[in-house]
Amino acid sequence: MAMASNAVYSHILFLSFLLFPLLAFSQTNVTLGTHLIAGDGGSPWTSPSTDFAFGFRSLDTDSFLLCIWFKQIPDQTIVWYAKGGNPAPKNSKIELTTDGQLLLTDPNGQQLWKAEISNSNDVAYAAMLDNGNFVVESKGFVHLWESFSLPTDTMLPGQILQVGESLDSKLSITNYSRGRFQLQLLEDGTLVLNPVSLPAYFPYAPYFSIGSNSGDNRSTLVFNESGLFYIERSNGSIVDLSPSAIFPISGFYHRATLDVRGAFYLYAHPRPSLGGTEEWSAEKSFPDNVCDITGEFGSGACGYNSYCGVANGMPICECPPEYTLNDPNNTLSGCKPKIPLVCEEGESGSLESLFDFRELGGTNWPFGDYERIAPVSEQECKESCLKDCYCAVLIFSNSTCWKKRLPVSNGRLSVTDTGKALFKISLASSVTSPSSSSTKKKDRTIAILVGSLGGSLFINFVLLAAICLTAFVAYQRRSKNSKQDSSISETNLRSFTYKELEEATNGFKEELGKGAFGIVYKGLYPLGSKNLVAVKRLDKVVQEGEKEFKTEVSVIGQTHHKNLVRLFGFCEEGPHRLLVYEFMSNGSLANFIFGLSRPHWDQRIQIAIGIARGLAYLHEECSTQIIHCDIKPQNILLDDFVRPRISDFGLAKLLMPDQVLTQTGIRGTKGYVAPEWFRSMPITAKVDVYSFGVMLLEIISCRKSVESAWGGEDKAILTDWAYDCYREGTLEELVEKDEEATRDGKRLLTLVMIAIWCIQEDPSLRPTMKKVSQMLEGAVDVPCPPCPFPFTSYS
C-alpha cells in the first residue's frame, strides 16, 4: 500500500492511543467486594455511556450467561462471554472479591469460572469501558486482566488479535459452547478461517485465507477506534480488510463476528440517537460467498445432508425434499430422511418398487462421491442408484452421474449451477413393508390363522360373522369421518378441531392482520408450546364450495418451496373454515418497504428475486397450476432471515364471485389488478405477472402504487410515472435519495425494464414468471420494452 495510506493509519493509531486515557478516565468503577446475582433482577455493571453492560443474561428461566452486550439497541447483542460459554444456574454470583479475584460461583459456592489475573494483590477496581472492554485495573492504572485479551466470537473497535490468538464461533444461535469454525492469525501472518473437529477442536484445512506468505510472525489483526479493519505487519505495511463504505464511528456501532455458519462479518448498527433500522447491517463478509465453505472434512455451513443458500447476503440453511432437521429447534443440526433408506440383502430385485427420487435443481454436495459414471442418461443414472444399496444421492450434470453415500457435506445452492441433485427416498409402501423379511413374517402369520380356522367349521362360521360385523362398523365410521377427512387427509396436513384452534389463539384474541379472506390471529402450535403460528379464519368462502375448499387446501398442502408460507393444517368443522400457517416474524413486505426507513437496495433486490421464484414454482412446477390472483406487498411475508414468503396462494377461488374485482378499485387507479379482469378475457397466470410488475416498481421506489401525496397528479400512479422516468431517462427521480440504487444505475435500469414488461396491458406480451426470474438473476438479457399502455398518448 502507498506510504500515504500508511501515514493515515499511523496517525489514526496515534490518536487512538491519545484517546485511550480519556476512555479509562470516564469509567464507572466496580469496587472490591461488589457482586451480581443471576436472576435477582439487579442492574448489570455498565459503561459510563451505558452503551455496554457486563453481567448475567437469561438463557431460560433457570440458566444464565455471564457476558458483555450492547445495552442500548433492541436485540442487546452479546459480544463476549466467559470462555466455554457454559450457562450458570440461577442465583450464581460473579464477584470482584476483596482479595482481587474476578470469580463466578454457583449457588453452593463452587467455582464455575475465574479470570486469570497475574497479580491479584495489586487489584484496585474493575470497570466496564465505553469501548466494550471489561478491565480489572491495578492501583497504578494498568490492566491486569481485560476481556479484549480473551475474545470469543466477536471483535470490537479498539481490539486487536495477535498471532496465535483466535475467534471461535458458537455451536448454534442459542448455544454458546465452542462451535465448528475458527478464525485465527497464523505464525506467517496469514488470516485464515477453518472448520474444526468436535469435541477435539482439531483444525481442518482453511476454506478462506488472506494476507498469506508474509512470513511475519509479529503481525496483528487490528479493528481500530475509527472502524477500520486491517492486518498490520511489523514493518508498518497494511492489508486493508475494511468495506468500501464505512459508516462513521460517531453515528454507528461496529462489530466483527464469526457466525455460527462459518462466515466472518463486519457489521454496523445506527446508534439510538440516529433512529432508523433496528437491525445490524452486514457491510462485508469473509468469504464473499458465505456458502463457499469447502473442505474434505467437516459438514459445511449448515450441517450434514443440508444445503446453504444466500438471501440478503446471509446464509440460509435448508433440508432437501423429504428430509427433516435432526433437531427441529436448530437449523444447523443437519438433516435426515423422513423415512430411513432401508436396504437389505436379497432385495435387489425389488428395490425399484421401494424407492423413488426427488429433484433439487442448482444444488451440489461437492465431496463424498464414491462412483462416477459417464457418459450416461439421467434415467440410466437413476436405475444404477436404485439397484445400489449404498447409493443415497445422485448429482447429474452434462451426461455425468456421481453417486454419493450419506451423509453428504458442504451443500450449496447456486443459480449458475446447471446440474441437479436427485435424492433417493423411500416410498410410502416401504413404511409398512420395509423388507422382504417382514413380508415373510406377515405371510407366516396369515398361514397360522388360516390353519387355525380350518380346525372347526363352527369356529370358522363364528369368526367369519365377527369379521363381517367388524367390517360393517368400520365402514359406518369411515363414512361418518369422511366428512371431516376428505381428500385432504392424503396430504401431511393436520386436521384441527375448532376448539383446538380457539384454545391455540386464546379465543382468537391477538389479531395479526385482516384481508379479503378474513382475519389472521396469532396462536401456538403444538398447543401450549412456544412455536408461533398464524391462524386464518376464512369468512367469505362460497357456501356451496365444500368440495372446492377441500381440493384447494389439498393442493396447497402438497406445495413445498422456500418462498411460500407453509401450511400446517386446517379446520372444516360445521360452518368454520380455518387455515393454520407458519408464523412470519418480520411481518409483511408492505410494512418493510413503506416504513420510515428505506431497506438496503441489495436486500430489496433479493426479495424481488425470491418472490419471482415462488411465483414461478406456483405457475410451472406444481402438479396443479396455482394462480395467486392477489399479489401485493401485504400478501408477501418475511421470515426470520427477511426472506420473502408468498401467502394466500391458491385461495382466490374461495372468495365470493364478486370479491376478486373489488380488491383494488376501478381500472383508472392502476392498482395490482390486471386489465383482463375487466374485459371478460380468460384469466391466466399472466394476471400474477402484471401484479408482480406493479409490486416490483414498489420495491424499487419504496412507494405505493397509488399515492396522491407524491408530488401531484403526474406521480400519483406509480406505473405511469415509472414509465415516464424510463422514457425520459430520469430514473434517479424514481429512487429519490436512494444513493445505493442511484450508484447501481445499470441494474436499476434493468429492473425497471423488467417491471415494464410485466405490466404490459396485452397479456401475451408479458413474460412468464420463470422468464422474469431468469431476467432478475441476469441469466437472460432484457430487451427494451414497448409502451405498456397502447391506448395512452405519449408525445
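That was protein one. Protein two is written in the same sequence-then-structure order:
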Amino acid sequence: MGSAEEVNQTKQAPDILMPKGILARTLTALASAVLRSQKVHDSESWEHGSNHGYQQGWKTGANAGFRQGFDKGRNEGHEAGALEGHQRGLEEGFEAGKRIIELRPGRPVDVKGPQVDRNLFDDWRFPITEQIEREVREKVALYLKGQEPTADQWKMIFSKDPSTCIVAGAGSGKSTTMVLRLLVLHRYLAIPRDNIAVVTFTRESRKDFRRKLTEVFELWGITLTEKMTGQIVRTFHSRILDFIRWSQDHPKVSAFEFFSLKKGEDEDEEDELENVFDIRLTVEQLGLMYAAYQQTYEANKEFSELVAELVRRSSKLAPMSANSPEAKRRAGRMDECSRRDAELTETVERLWQQSGFWPIDGIQPGPFPLSLKGREFFANGYSEELDAYVVLGVGKNDRKLSLLSHPKMKLTGATTMKKTFFQVYCDKGIIFLDNYAEATSTLEILRGYVTKCPKFDYQIEGELGETPIMQAFHSAASFLENLGLDVSEAVDRMSFPEGSSDAIFFKALAIYWPAFNLYLSRQTPPIFTFNKMFEMFGERGEANLQELPDEVFMPMLHLLVDEFQDCGANTISWLRAVFREARRRRLHILTDTAVCPGSLMAVGDDWQSIYGWRGSSPKFFKDFEDYFPSPSTTHVLMKENYRSQQMVIDAAESLVKHQSNDDEKHGIASHPKVKDLAHPVQVLDRNDSHLAELVERHFDQGQTVLVLYRKNDTKREVQDKLGSVLAKAKRLKRSGNIKLLTYHGSKGLEADAVFLVGDCAQLSTSPHRNMAYRQAKLGEMGDPKPYDTAQGEETLRLAYVAITRAKQHCYWFVEPAQPLKGGLVSALARVSFKKPFFEDLRTR
C-alpha cells in the first residue's frame, strides 16, 4: 500500500483512474492475446468462448448505448418542449380561464389493489439462445445420427418456460428427448447437476433412464458415474425420504414399505421400491400391522367389539333369498352338488385333520346329514352351545386342489356353492370356517370368550374377493390416502345402508389406522408409511416444510417427472407444496449468464393412465395448469410413434379417442421398418391351441412375443398350451423372446407380435370408492358414481396400453360376449369392425 498522502491524492483525482469495466476488458484482452500467442488454449473452446463473449459484449454495449442515447434525447426534447408548451399554455389558458365558472374535484377512483399471485413459479425464462439451439442441433446430428429429434421433440428440449407439459404418446421415443433436455440444462445453461432431478415410478425405469443418461452425456465428453446418475434419477419415494430424514425429529426414520426389500440389496438401491404399484404385504409388514392390531384390540373396547361383530358376520352365514342373483345362478347345479357332497365333506375334513386343526374342542364332529330342498347335504360338525352347524371350507394353501372324482372341480368352487345352498335353504345357524389356524379364535369370538384379536378374511363390497383383514385395512386406507384424504376424516363423511357390514369395517378402520401409524412412529428408529411422509410434507404440512433447510429443496429445483399421469393426489400435493415453498424462499441457481429459479417439466400420456384402482388419476395431467399455475407454460404434443404400424395405432386409439378434448392427439407411425405395414388387429374366438400355433410361428421367424391376460387364471390355462414353445425358447436360450404378463404388467414393453387373451372388461363397482372420489373432487360434478365411471374409462385405456405394445401384429382371443351388468364397460364392446384396422375372424 502507498502512503496516506498518496491515497489522499488518489481520492482527489478520480479522472486519472481507469473505469472498472474498461480495466477488466483490457486485462481480459491482454490475457487472451498471450494465450493465442502461446497456443495453449483449446481452439474449439476458445472460438466458442470468443464468439459468445463478442456476442454478449456487443449486446451489453448496444443496450448501454441505447439507454444513454434515450436518456439524452428525452432530456433535450423535454427542455425544448417545455419552452414551447409554456408559451402555448399561457395563451390558450388565459382565454379558457375566462370561461371557468366552477371548479369540480375529480370523482373517486374504484381501486381494487394488487392481484394475488398464486403461481408456483417466478416469471422468468431459460436463457436458451439461437446460438445454443444451433450448436445442440449440430452436435446431435453428429453424435446421434439417425436419431435426430422431431420438431415436437425439439420444442420440448428447448422449452424456455418455467413449466412444461409434454403429452408423449405410446412409442414416442421420449427417453432420448428427456436426456437431451437435461443435457441442455447442464452443458449449455451451466445448471449444476446437483440441482437437476428426474423422478420415475419404478426401479426398472430408473435403471433404463440412468443408462441412457450416461451414454448420451459421454458423447459430449461428460462422464457420469453410477453415483452421479443415482443422485439425479430417483423415485418419488426416495425423494420424500430426503425430506423426512432432514427433519430434526426423524433423522433415522425407516419406511414401512421397505420391509418388503430382501436382505442384501445393493446400497445404491436401498431407498428405491421395485414397483410402487405393488401393494402386496410381506411377512415383516404384516407382523407390524398385527402387532398394532393386537395392541388396539386390547386397548380400545369399541374397536374390539367392532372386530368381533365382523367375525360373527363373516363366520355365521347370513340367510340368503332364493331369488338373489347368486342363488339363481347356482340353482341348476344343486342336484350335482348334492351327489358329490359326501365326498366333498370327507375330503375337506381330511385336510383339516392333516393340518392338525380338526376336531375342535366344543364342536361335535360329524358328518351330520341335512335335507336342503329335498337334497341330501352334510355338515362337518355341530355346536350345541351356539345351536349352529359347522361347515368347513378350504384353507388358502389348498384352494387349488380338486375333487378326486371331478378333477375339473376345484375344492374352493365346490365349497362356495355348498355354502350358498346352506345360506338359502338351511333353517338353523351355520358357522363357516375356512382358516385352519384361526378357527379356534373365531369360535371363541362367537362364544364371547375372547383371548386375542382374531385373524379372518373380509371382502369389502366391490372388491374382487376376500383378503386377510390386515390386507383389507391396508388396501382401503392406502387408496384413501393416495387420493389425498385423511382416513378417519374420510370415513366420518361416508354413509352406508342400515345393517351394512362395510359400515362396521370402515368404522374399525378409522380407529385402527391412526393407532397403526402411532405404533410405527414409536418404533426405534421410527417407521412411517410413504403416504404419511407425503402428507407430512404436502400442502397440509406447510409448517414442517418451513423447518427444513434450503439444501433439501435445491436438488429438486429443476425437476422432470416421467409418467406424470400415474401421480396420485398425495404426490401432487407434495410437489405443489415444494415448489410453493421454494418460491417463497426465492431459491434459485445463479449461472454466468442468468438467474434460474425453479422449473417443472411433466412428461406423460393420459391415455396410459391405468392405476386408478391404486389412487392415481389422469386429471392432474389433463388439468396440469390448474394444479401447477405458472406465468407461462409450454405445451408439447409428441405424435410420432416409433414402435407400431399405423393400423395398430388407429385400432388402439379408436377405444379412447372420446376421452380427449384435443383433436390433434393422434399417433403417426414413424419407424421406417413398420410404418408402411398394414396388418389389422385380428379378433378371434378363444382357442388356446390356435394361440400356441401362432406364438410358435412368430417365434420361429425370430420375432419377439408378448402374451397378455386380464386374470391370473388365464395365465395358467395358456401356459399349459404354450409348454412346447416355451421349452424350445429355453433350449435355444431365447426365453426372453416370449413373455406372459398381465395387461397392467405390459406397460412400457413392446414386441413384434402381441396376443391378448380375454376381453378387457370392468370387473366391479365400488360404493366406498365412489364416496372417496366425491370427497377428493375427482370425476364430473353431479356424477353419483365417479369412481365407477373413471374405472370404465380406465378399462378402455388398459386395452389401449395392451394393443400399443405391438410393433407389427396384434391378435385378440376372446370368449363369447357376455351381457354386462350395471353399466360396466367392455373394451370389446367398443370395437368397431366397420373400420379397416379391426378384423373380425370369430365364427358367427
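The mean pLDDT is 86. Keep this in mind for the problem set.
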